Task: structure prediction
Amino acid sequence: MNVRIVLSLLLCSLASAAGASEPSTGAAKSDVTSPAWVEPYRAVAERIVSTTLNHNEAYAKLEYLCLRIGHRLSGSKQLNEAIDWAIATMKKDGQENVHGEKVMVPHWVRGEESATMLKPRVEVLSMIGLGGSVGTSPEGVTGEVVVVTSEEALKSLGEGVKGKIVLFNHPMPPYCPERGSGYGTASRFRYHGARWAAEHGAVAALVRSATARSLRSPHTGGMSYGDATVRIPTAALSLEDAESIAGLTRLGVPVTVNLKMGAQTLPDAESANVIGELRGTTNPEEVVLISGHLDSWDAGHGAQDDGGPCVAVMEAINVLRRLDLRPRRTIRVVLWTNEENGLAGAKAYVKDHADELAKHVVAIEADSGVFKPQGYSIECADEARAKRAAEQMDAILSVLSGTFPDLKTSTGWSGADIGQMKSAGVVLMGHDVEGSTYFDYHHTHADTLDKVDPRELSENVAVLAAVAYILADMPHRIGETPVP
Result:
């Protein structure tokens, strides 16, 4: 997951803090007067939705991906197995042009790891190393902990950080429907914290997990050293352990921690984006792309991030194929590799498909789990086209209002993988879902199959299938002015 949610929620939080207005959204469905071009799709959309909700194979696919294969970190054996499985599955489903496109990806491995509080008492801490971190020597790194809540607080300590372990204890606020989760603000300490701490002479960095609720579950995620020459190990602590250490230091009690990490970065490994299509009838060269990322962090099953969205886009074209609904344009499924720690798959796709990006009508990314669908966030380098696309998406979503009356459009960040196509002028859309519990499981050992509601997964398949079909069959390209 993740860059899309990071940026969108950061912008949402900043706007709220400044007293700004809500992000621009399309009109409520009851206010939409459907244009003539969309009305013919009402009956077919209802047919797609009712058929999908009655039966589909998404949950069965997700069971295999989660239980038989498991988590899928870039460069891992499990990711390679998932790629092979996805290719075989789409071929079995009868999809066209199914293949993998080679990508070289980063290969970071976790190794054995632990964090132990040595003073004022001995206690094993709930931790997880951050992706990309360097490791420690076998005996680990030991140091007194200094606790900060912001970059400014770190700077104010000056020489007081030298030789210490820095704990960034910045809380993430509870989820708010109007403002989102605040993940973007909290996760910056995970991404930059080690570099910031090293600049002040720290020997290691710890971060409070980027979540608002915890049952002592630490959350991993990507970090970056940038161009720093001094690289120190870094890991996340559960909220409970971060608060415990912070509480002791507030009482004036020194805390000493030992951090051991067997992490290492190996040479880049071969991986692949997975492609499958439902070919168009009259304009097959034009592409409506729907996607999710097949890789995950090496914790849990990667069920919500991003296994569920992957099987949802796979099953969306499967539903259309079973209904013998073949649109004018091609619907292309892309399962990205290496979203979590590099975006190598997305970058390779833009390079490999440079000659046909002008024929990409729209690119959709699902990377927020498979909770109840809420609509689409839209962006395009051409702002006028983005606005027209949002208005036209209001019309498209209106034909789904019988089953999904609350679907809305907004303009804003769409997705990390598809974002690589923005400069080519492609209309980009993020598949949005209800997000109040997503960050309870995000990047943890708790992101498992049981967290996925089969009904909500089916609802995501239904919306994706109907929206993709209309986008691929409508008389004009989304964002263009309809011809009278």
Q: What stands out?
A: The domain at 111-262 is CATH 3.50.30.30 (Glucose Oxidase; domain 1). The chain has a mean pLDDT of 93.
